[in-house]
Each structure stands twice: as structure tokens, then as C-alpha cells.
């Protein structure tokens, strides 16, 4: 079978590997149909000194496929189903796993495609627990955006920030994979969405996606525009993943009691904080990393009723590298998919 391996920094190789054995007890065999690219793929591909991993490593951190075989004792899934896969090897038996807090697993065995072999291979066996069926009508490309993209946003907006109908949310970088998903999912619950983008072409796309207000952060200070748009009140929730470049402005954009949720720091990790501002304005700040298995299922359910991920481009497996370069360049609007 085909597999795409990272052999050294920025170097990928398409190789021929033996197919896996029949799935064992509690496992299902999945034929991979589509992958979605994320910044975690870019970090892994560039090389990350602190990541414990062995090369060559099969890449691919987010994927969907079709179940082709069931191991013994598998009852909840069927051959032929379209499925998303949860990309971290959680244990399933620690107290956090048992409470459904999968992303706080105490014995996690690594992230697929980053620490351990990932999804960029024709066939793999997965524990049944980590395989989530998609509703009828959800395509492989769409389902490929559930394991990280939609689920991360679900976890941020709804588990952590508890965004509700009628509230206002500031979504940074609305053209990014998670930014575009956040616009869709926030609009779906009836929130007002303000988003930032870096050029006019993306602004038009963000508007078409349903954003109520779009700010070009290259030509306007977003925190000033947010004050203007909200008539000096501020937003209820800030969806952060930019980091140091936007942090201060994000805090200034919130109303008293506002909630900031962050899952990333692409522009830098260290910043200063005014603690008086934090407690006097009663801000709540949430760090969010990954998602729960339920978040994946909830994202798929929403896709099933029409809340679709935004797809920027679909590339063949041979162009995985070009897809990563495109993601790294930030010229994207939505997700880059790799078709198998
Ligand atoms: Zn666990």
C-alpha cells in the first residue's frame, strides 16, 4: 500500500508498505480517502526539536475514510461507513478518558502524524473507540475536517467559551482553517460574528461565509474597529489563535466578563499581561488544546445538517508538499484537503 513518510525535515517520500493484518479485537480497518492539512503538519514537516518521534514517520494528522473490515467484538460500526478518526492515541481508561475529557488523557500515546505514524497511508487499523461515523450525505473531504478542525472549534467555542445565541464573537484570521470553521459554527448557534482578515479578497469571502463584520487588520487596528462596531461595548467572546501579535488587542476588545479562548500562538508565545485589567474587568481566559471525541461527533452531526467546512483546495497525495507550502504561505481561505 502507499504511505507518505517524512524522512527528514521538509522531505517527504511516497513509499510502498505492507498492508496491515486483519483488525484485532476492538479494532476496525479503515481505507483512508481524504486528509486535511493543519498547522501541526507544517510544524512536523519543518522539524520540531522538542517532538519525540522516530523517522521515517507516516504523516497526516486529520483524516476520514471508509470502514473495510471489523475486528471481533466491534458492535457500534459497520463496513462501508464513512468515518472520521480521532488523531491522538488516548488510553480510554484513565479518569479523564472515562469522563469524556479525551484531550486530558493521562496516558496519551502520541498524536498521529506527529509523534507516531499518521493517516497518510491507504489502510490502517484503529481502535473502535477512536473511529467516529459520519451521518449520511457527509463526503469524505468534509468528514476529513472533523477530527481536528471542527472539533477544536467546537471545544473552544462551546465547551470552553460557552458561546450562546445573541452573543458577539471576534474570530481572528477568518480565512484560516479553524477561523473559517469558527465563523460557520458561531453563525450556526445564532451569534454575531466579527472577523479579521489580511486582504480584501479574503474579506469578501468571509462576508460570503456569513460573517456580520469583517475587519482588514492590515489597514485598520482591529481593536478600534471592534469598539466602533460594538458601540464601545466590546465582544462577549474572542476566538484567539494568533498569539502575541493580537493578544493585547484581543483583551481590549472584550466587554467586562468577556471570555477569551485560545488554541494557538503562531505569531509568538510570550506576552505581558495587565493583571489589573484581568481581574477588574473579570475576564475569563481559556487555554484549549485539541478536542474530545464527542466534539468530533458533534462536528459531524452539524456537517450532516449543512454546516460544511470551507475547502480552499483539494490536492492529490503526490502534492502533499505543495499543500503544506500553500498552508505555510497563509494564502489559503479554508482547508487544504489531500485526496487519496
Ligand atoms: Zn486516558
UniProtKB/TrEMBL annotation:
Keyword NADP: yes
Keywords, alphabetical: NADP, Oxidoreductase
Keyword NADP set for record: yes
Enoyl reductase (ER) domain residues: 8-338
InterPro entries: ADH-like_C, ADH-like_N, ER, GroES-like_sf, NAD(P)-bd_dom_sf
Pfam families for this protein: ADH_N, ADH_zinc_N
UniProt cross-references to SUPFAM superfamilies, sorted A to Z: GroES-like (SSF50129), NAD(P)-binding Rossmann-fold domains (SSF51735)
GO MF annotation list: NADPH binding; oxidoreductase activity, acting on NAD(P)H
Record-given protein name: Zinc-containing alcohol dehydrogenase
